[in-house]
């Protein structure tokens, strides 16, 4: 299924300034026809979005069109094909043997990237279902206890990091947290570093304290109170052993 996005100037009326809107054209019977729901959604619902966001949204739509074209047998099962699209965006289309019957050869995407793509598609399809009397392919439902608690903790985490988070209505947020999608993208792990948590090597910790914090020009000083930067040493001990019992912390200092 050939398709292309063409930026088109759209006039709301005869005196208005033209809007440059990406329009999706899909081949149908050898003729390229516009998909009006995409351009209408961008024009009416995404006017405040940046060009980068709109570009990513267009990418997600193109991926959906490619996926539908690669699975013509599922055209009469929109909910099933959309569920498979969700899975393929996250995990790719290549199996363990390296083959791909769909010939898409999509690689797995990061949780953040896949969630951004799928969220934009979900919102567009919600709008289509509302405006065009179409079925919701990924409807919102009442979440179970675990899903509600997970969404609520995510809200608290975002609110605590927001400067004006205390001004938001918690009642409204709890109602939103109680609703979830039928199927959602996978979440990124808390520690997404491929190398794990970075920490100072324990075997060099005492060298850091008693060789790294020697004051300039005090290498030959015999009085330890005058030789070391004790402020830096105390801060380092606090950062490294903040949860250690007092007795063990005293042993560390004595050693």
What does this structure look like?
This is Site-specific integrase. The chain is mainly alpha-helical and 255 residues long. It has three domains: 3-72 and 109-135, no CATH class; 139-187, no CATH class; 202-253, no CATH class. The chain has ten helices and five strands, in the order βββααααβααβαααα. The chain has helices at 36-45, 51-70, 78-91, 111-131, 145-160, 170-177, 205-210, 224-227, 230-240, 246-254, and strands spanning 3-10, 19-28, 31-34, 140-142, 179-181. The strands form two sheets. Strands 1-2-3 form a three-stranded antiparallel beta sheet. The radius of gyration is 28 Å and the shape is elongated. The mean pLDDT is 80.
What keywords describe this structure?
three-stranded antiparallel beta sheet; 3 domains; 255 residues; mainly alpha; 5 strands; 11% strand; Site-specific integrase
**Structural class by sheet pairing and helices:** mainly alpha
- What is the domain total for the residues? 3
Q: Topology as H/E string?
A: EEEHHHHEHHEHHHH
Return the average pLDDT rounded to an integer.
Answer: 80
Total helix count?
Answer: 10
Nearest-angstrom radius of gyration?
Answer: 28 Å
Task: Give the overall shape, derived from the CA principal axes.
Answer: elongated
Distance between the termini: 73 Å
Organism: Duganella flavida
Protein name: Site-specific integrase
Summarize the SSE layout with pairings.
Blueprint: E1 3-10, E2 19-28, E3 31-34, H1 36-45, H2 51-70, H3 78-91, H4 111-131, E4 140-142, H5 145-160, H6 170-177, E5 179-181, H7 205-210, H8 224-227, H9 230-240, H10 246-254
Antiparallel strand pairs: 1-2, 2-3, 4-5
């Amino acid at each position: 299924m050939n398709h292309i996005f063409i930026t088109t100037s759209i006039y709301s009326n005869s005196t208005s300034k033209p809007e440059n809107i990406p329009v999706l054209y899909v081949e149908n019977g050898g003729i390229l026809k516009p998909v009006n729901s995409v351009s209408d959604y961008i024009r009416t619902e995404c006017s405040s979005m940046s060009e980068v966001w709109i570009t990513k949204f267009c990418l997600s739509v193109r991926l959906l069109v490619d996926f539908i074209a690669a699975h013509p047998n599922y055209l009469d099962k929109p909910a099933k094909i959309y569920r498979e699209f969700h899975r393929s965006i996250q995990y790719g289309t290549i199996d363990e043997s390296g083959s791909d019957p769909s010939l898409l050869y999509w690689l797995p995407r990061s949780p953040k990237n896949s969630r951004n793509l799928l969220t934009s598609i979900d919102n567009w399809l919600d709008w289509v279902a509302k405006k065009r009397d179409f079925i919701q392919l990924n409807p919102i439902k009442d979440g179970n206890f675990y899903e509600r608690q997970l969404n609520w903790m995510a809200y608290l985490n975002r609110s605590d990091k927001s400067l004006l988070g205390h001004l938001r209505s918690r009642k409204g947020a709890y109602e939103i947290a109680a609703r979830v999608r039928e199927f959602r993208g996978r979440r990124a792990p808390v520690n997404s570093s491929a190398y794990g948590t970075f920490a100072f090597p324990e075997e060099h910790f005492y060298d850091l304290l008693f060789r790294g914090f020697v004051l300039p020009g005090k290498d030959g000083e015999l009085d330890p109170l005058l030789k070391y930067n004790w402020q830096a040493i105390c801060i380092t001990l606090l950062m490294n052993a903040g949860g250690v019992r007092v007795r063990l912390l005293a042993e560390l200092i004595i050693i």
